[in-house]
């Protein structure tokens, strides 16, 4: 595969860079976004920034799964309202969640009637959706794209661990699944007034498996995947930590962060000053008893919508690398004694 | 959103057609593919055409889930061998299966180390993977792409119904999940000697839910989604059944086929002569006791690789519309009394 621009162009790979990255000819814009969260997230440090905090965690549903579907519906509705668009104005929707067969999404977004691509990347799904969505626009396949992801504490506990009624205890290395959904509308940049931020390109994650089996310490499991993607991103794009105002992982949490920084230090990269983690930003570790931090498809999605894009929009930051992380286990793989393979996608975001 | 070519070009939507379709500027080629199946599929009418039929249905694994992962590994390895390529020669991999959190894929493909996009579209996933993979190439984001999907009778029974050991009975409307995996390698057409077939474009499916709740009659649940996508495809592309040699659905089975043809007849479309269904092709209904037919992510993938592409390659057919269908239910949604929302993507295939 060609390494220099000329050769890449000959292959029709005009928007490729390096081994696994994409750099758009023309940036793609996040024109609008919305975040809807549960009560606990509303009480956290970012609480005032979310577009909507639910009254209870059922969001009008009769089951936790309906609640999560309603979260997606509400986030998507609010994003459309902010952009003054209707569902028919977007060409494709990329959606995903943590549940088996992605039922939160299937039941959440069907009423919009938008041609649909279902994704599964565990907690990295927000990064996967924005990556593929932006490529659809940069490739000339769509004018506008919608992306939505979600997670819910109670559905995730049932799906991966035990139903809440069992009163299961959680070790200190465990994370707390965020109840929340973030929705994003993408379009080509430069057409009208600037949107919230621009997506310049991405680096796709590989599945990285260090052989860890502790599903109650997913931060440590995911750290190698985050380090792998970050190192490949720097290589593909010819960049270093100095280029970015912040490198923001999805949901490594406090233990995962330590492992992530250690793995990078072993490769001569000092990221301590530049690194932030959505899982550590969304809850108050002192006050909210979430152990290692927040996690879930909703964690980085609502943090991106409510806080990261705001920082870019208001000019506090210019350039951010957004690194949603995901642990690709299931309760079946856990019960069969398997490891926790992980993945992380990187998105290059700049202020509009 | 613009309806005529000029307006679409102004929006940078050079490769869009109609409301939800994509037509590539330059076709994408399926350069190589491989199919690996279980014993029952090996005994079916297409048995001699599959690249490999397993000795037993464990494929060297200790669990059914490992077996399914090994199916994906083997299919992908054989596709690479046929194309005389290595995993590093493809830029991205699109993969998916039916299991919760797509574990067959995560554990199946991680050793290849290819940057990974996980998909969930139930039995339509093969169509979703080929659609997105082809768009990556036509958009200038990759020179070559790999796609792999799988299903396994025993993992699907555990995931959706009951473990095999329960000896559960199945109604005549139920389908039999295909044990099999199909892998495909895509590249731009016209670069070297012709590949197996060309992908000209696609029409993306919407989630269609007619309110049916019978998970033992998924053909009937999926028929409205297939009809919806087909009608929109004809509208977007300005085509009729006459244009195609065959319109081939993924896994409607015999009951789903009847519902599909009826729904089309209500809209004035007579497809009886042109329609084929992979679920009805893969088993011998008289001899193999599969009830309504085959189903699963593997069903249309192995039928495409072993038979449909062969017909195109050998010139028996010129143009085929490939319509993988998927039922987006889970055991949780079923147990909570929900409906079975469905989806179907359409791919336009032509002989190389």
Total number of helical segments of chain A? 12
First-to-last CA distance of chain A: 33 Å
Shape of chain A: globular
Biggest beta sheet attributes of chain A:
12 strands, mixed
Can you tell me the CATH architecture of the largest domain in chain A? Answer: 3-Layer(aba) Sandwich
Please, what is the CATH homologous superfamily of the largest domain in chain A?
Stage V sporulation protein AD
Greatest contact between two chains: A-B, 74 and 75 residues
Number of domains of chain A: 2
Explain this structure to me?
The structure is a homodimer of 352-residue chains. Chain A has helices at 5-10, 39-42, 64-83, 103-109, 125-138, 153-160, 218-237, 253-266, 278-281, 285-288, 297-313, 331-335, and strands at 16-17, 21-37, 52-53, 92-96, 116-118, 144-151, 176-177, 180-188, 197-203, 246-249, 275-277, 294-295, 319-323, 325-327, 342-344, 346-351. Chain A is an alpha/beta fold and 352 residues long. Chain A folds into 2 domains: 5-188, Peroxisomal Thiolase, Chain A, domain 1, CATH 3.40.47.40; 200-351, Stage V sporulation protein AD (Peroxisomal Thiolase, Chain A, domain 1). In chain A, strand 1 (16-17) and strand 2 (21-37) form a beta hairpin. Chain A is globular and about 55 Å long. At the A-B interface, helix 4, strand 5, helix 5 and helix 12 of A face strand 2, helix 4, strand 5, helix 5 and helix 12 of B.
